[in-house]
UniProtKB/TrEMBL annotation:
Mode of membrane association: Single-pass membrane protein
Alphabetical keyword list: Membrane, Transmembrane, Transmembrane helix
Organism expressing this protein natively: Flagellimonas lutimaris
Record keyword Transmembrane present: yes
Domain Band as annotated: residue spans: 24-189
Gene3D superfamilies reported for this sequence: Band 7 domain
Keyword Transcription regulation attached: no
UniProt xrefs under PANTHER family: PROHIBITIN, PROHIBITIN 1
Membrane-spanning parts: 7-27
One GO CC annotation: membrane
Compartment(s): Membrane
Protein known as: Prohibitin family protein
Length: 271
């Protein structure tokens, strides 16, 4: 009975030590995450192997694991940039990005967990200043929004392309001009719209007048052709036909033949 505690205590201590070792060594990586292994006695950050994937892992207790989110993320940025004529423009933009999975070790070693603040956001600011500086406030306000967004995306991607960051999209969410400039542009656009509308009405009126002239000319030409084809004989024959039809009418009472100026019949007593 005296020997039992002497055996149990070392065993208990070993179990407790084993539990501590396992708890220090167990790493669980969540969904959409990956881990970068740092070997304290083995060369530091592991860059020549794939990062640790999702799930449960056991690592030596003297090593460390740095966990990164590797799914697509979004970062917002508000900037003040200058247009081509030196006016201050406020630009709200966001970026869709994610770290390059296979290069996660190099990203951690060279850029650290602060890569968004140290690399991505400065790149977006630099690209935005460069692109917006090529355009006037009028272009920024109206027709060039999509082009500006695409150019900022391409320039930012060129900057971060070798920085182990995958840039998926840049979205320009708002462009704010100084109030006086915005009002002046809106007045100009309104005047241009009214001018276009006036020109459209003039063109429509001119087309309508041209249509009326063509129709009138057509009628005049038709009458001219008809007049040229109506000889005295034709007119006399048509008069006789008309007289016969009137004579057959129940309202025709008296027909005087050959009493007209042209020898055509006269109809008298018409009720």
């Amino acid at each position: 009975m005296d020997k039992l505690p002497k055996i149990a205590l070392p065993a208990l201590a070993a179990i407790i030590f084993l539990i501590i070792i396992i708890s220090k060594s167990a790493i669980t990586i969540g969904s959409g995450e990956a881990g970068v292994l740092y070997k304290t006695f083995g060369g530091g950050v592991v860059t020549d192997e794939a990062p640790l994937g999702e799930g449960f892992h056991l690592v030596a207790p003297w090593n460390k694991v740095f966990i990164y989110e590797v799914r697509q993320q979004e970062v917002f940025e508000k900037m003040q940039v200058l247009s081509s004529n030196g006016l201050e423009i406020k630009l709200d933009a966001s970026a869709w990005f994610q770290p390059e999975y296979e290069s996660l070790g190099k990203l951690h070693q060279e850029k650290s967990e602060l890569y968004k603040d140290r690399i991505l956001l400065p790149a977006i600011r630099s690209a935005a200043r460069s692109v917006v500086g090529r355009y006037t406030p009028e272009q920024l306000y109206s027709s060039k929004r999509d082009a500006i967004q695409q150019e900022i995306f391409e320039e930012t991607r060129n900057i971060v392309g070798d920085q182990y960051i995958q840039l998926n999209q840049i979205l320009v969410r708002d462009v704010t001009l100084p109030p006086t400039i915005k009002e002046a542009i809106e007045r100009k656009l309104k005047q241009e719209q009214e001018s276009l509308e006036y020109e459209f009405r003039l063109i429509t009126a001119e087309k309508e007048a041209q249509k009326v002239r063509i129709e009138a000319q057509g009628k005049a030409d038709a009458n001219k052709i008809l007049s040229a084809s109506l000889t005295d004989k034709i007119l006399q024959d048509k008069g006789i036909d008309a007289t016969l039809k009137l004579a057959e009418s129940p309202n025709a009472k008296v027909v005087v033949v050959g009493s007209g100026d042209d020898g055509l019949p006269l109809i008298l007593g018409n009720n």
